[in-house]
Design goal:
Elements lengths: L2 E3 H7 L21 H9 L2 E6 H4 L7 E10 L2 E15 L5 E12 L10 E5 L8 H8 L2 E2 L16 E2 L9 E5 L8 E2 L11 H18 L7 E6 L1 H17 L5 E5 L16 H16 L5 H4 L3 H22 L5 H15 L3 H6 L6 H7 L7 E2 L7 E2 L13 H20 L32 H10 L4 E7 L7 H9 L5 H4 L2 E6 L9 H18 L6
Parallel strand pairs: 6-9, 6-11, 11-12, 12-15, 15-16
Antiparallel strand pairs: 2-3, 3-4, 4-5, 5-9, 5-10, 7-8, 13-14
């Protein structure tokens, strides 16, 4: 899940997620469900033993605890491992220690039949806490479904919607995030970049798979936000470097091609890809014309997509050669689908970036809309200016995730660390995109090659209608330009949800997301004949 909020934040959060220019997380809270109580009754074991206790010569400290949880009406016993795995070069010199938390189902007789999923958020600079405690892990923080902030003190509940019944889960914190750090004397720059990141995260996946004897297990990567770029890159890197083929790549609110998101210069593509999300946001806040407002969200978004890809795209392509009459007609339609005044649209020359939209949509009500989740509203010092002061959705989630993780990792998982757990950090800057100098960062070709070389690789894309960090239409544009063979296009599964960058903090969407992912795993994993 991350990009950066405000000047730093708007460019970095994402992981919460991210992109070096984007971000993401979200919200909700209720009393623990009945399933959670059953999970407690089934019992968590406080017994723990670190690998350093077993063998003091080992440098890594990995603490294992035993637990159980009720998912889909069934008790799932599992082990939790929290600790650091050393990343070494060929000479066995330690280069970094990467922190991870892994959940593996207990008493599995045939590991070759048991999927394992490697999970990470984005940033760059984000830990994996958002996917961990928001969506996938056995414990989850709940936010209000009405997009209002939580009040401290915060708490976790049993996550009966976890995927732990379907797959083992390994949450990875890239170097400089979470508790992961370069080894003493090692330059952090060797980990901070597109290719550098793929090497270190790819090596972690290889080493973890080898250490815990999971080479025959069905393998998946699951990334959020900038984690989409990482997941696409890893699909190729793991094949090329280790001949490790994936069964699936799951991308939640992700980005693969930065051109679809980067406003500025002569790049008109983001104005097109953001438009359907503008329409969804305007619909949510009830500022569309009555005939549109009376229709369903899906119908409104579909109409906005058709306008964006058709008449609007053609108008932007013509630039100043667009006839005045056509300019006025397109401006009227743009105003209709965005909820913005015709005057504002006209003065913007039909080009409205995300900052301006977030400030302008509810300006008359002295409110702004969130970037990660446009359901959230903020209040600026005044109603002047072109952009908002802060992301209201980001402000609502960082505190709860930080507090609950720091308590959970110590109290329940038994892992002790004196350093700060870097939830989301700018310490990864500068981030190198050397391979892409002179052009936009784009991992689509890597993904295309991986899907072509491994025709069994399935891709699942989860997108939130209210995500103004990585809009759903941007991802659709990206996959349309993979130029895959028709048969391979069927390997891509799109799913859309009410909610923002972290659609899973909205309970109805979380329920639907789990249902969709369970079906995806069933398609991506074909049992081996005995």
């Amino acid at each position: 899940m991350v990009f950066y909020l405000t000047k730093l934040a708007r460019v970095c959060v994402c992981g919460v997620f991210a992109l070096g220019v984007f971000s993401a997380p979200l919200l909700g809270q209720e009393k623990p469900a009945t399933d959670a109580k059953k999970g407690k009754e089934a019992g968590d074991s406080k017994e723990k033993k670190s690998e350093t206790e077993k063998d003091p010569a080992k440098k890594e400290s990995i603490v294992t605890t035993k637990h159980s949880i009720v998912i889909d009406g069934k008790t799932v016993a599992y082990e939790a491992m929290a600790g650091k795995l050393p990343i070494k070069d060929d000479a066995q010199k330690s280069k970094a220690d990467m922190f991870f938390i892994a959940y593996t189902r207990s008493e599995v007789k045939e590991l070759g039949q048991r999927p394992v999923t490697f999970c990470f958020n984005g940033g760059p600079g984000s830990s994996s806490v958002w996917l961990h405690l928001g969506m996938l892990g056995p414990k989850r923080i709940r936010f209000p479904d009405d997009a209002t902030p939580l009040r401290a003190p915060y708490s976790l509940e049993e996550n009966s919607l976890s995927l732990l019944d379907v797959t083992d889960l390994v949450f990875i914190d890239p170097v400089s995030t979470g508790y992961s750090r370069p080894a003493d004397g090692e330059e952090k720059s060797q980990f901070h970049g597109y290719e550098e990141d793929l090497r270190s995260v790819g090596q972690f996946i290889h080493d973890w798979t080898t250490k815990y004897q999971r080479w025959l297990s069905p393998k998946f990567v699951l990334g959020e936000s900038y984690g989409g770029v990482r997941a696409a890159g890893l699909s190729g890197y793991l094949q090329d470097r280790y001949y490790m083929e994936l069964n699936g790549a799951i991308i939640v609110s992700g980005v693969i091609n930065f051109q679809t998101l980067r406003f500025g210069g002569s790049n008109d593509l983001p104005y097109i890809t953001f438009l359907p999300t503008y329409a969804a946001t305007a619909w949510y806040h009830k500022v569309l014309p009555a005939d549109l407002q009376s229709q369903s969200l899906e119908v409104v978004v579909k109409q906005a997509e058709e306008f964006a890809n058709g008449r609007y795209a053609a108008a932007l392509l013509k630039g100043t050669s667009l006839p005045a009459e056509e300019f006025r007609a397109v401006a009227e339609l743009l105003s209709r689908y965005t909820g913005l005044s015709n005057s504002f649209v006209t003065k913007s020359k039909l080009r409205i970036d995300q900052d301006r939209f977030g400030k302008e949509l509810l300006r008359s009500k002295s409110r702004t809309v969130g970037r990660f989740d446009s359901r959230y509203v903020g209040i600026d010092r005044d109603d002047a200016g072109a952009g908002y002061e802060y992301d209201a959705s980001g402000a609502a989630i960082f505190g709860p995730f930080t507090a609950t993780f720091n308590d959970y990792v110590r109290r329940e998982l038994g892992f002790e660390e004196d350093r700060v757990y870097e939830i989301l950090t700018g310490n990864v800057q500068p981030w190198s995109y050397k391979r892409f100098e002179g052009r936009y960062v784009d991992a689509t070709e890597t993904l295309r090659k991986a899907m072509t070389a491994n025709p069994y690789l399935k891709v699942f894309l989860a997108c939130g209608y209210y995500d103004l960090a990585t809009p759903h239409f941007a991802m659709m544009n990206t996959t349309d330009h993979l130029l895959l063979e028709p048969a391979l296009k069927n390997n891509i599964d799109y799913r859309f949800y009410e909610g923002g960058h972290m659609m899973y903090i909205y309970q109805p969407s979380m329920v639907k997301l789990r249902e969709d992912l369970v079906k995806f795993y069933e398609k991506a994993v074909v049992p081996t004949a005995k």
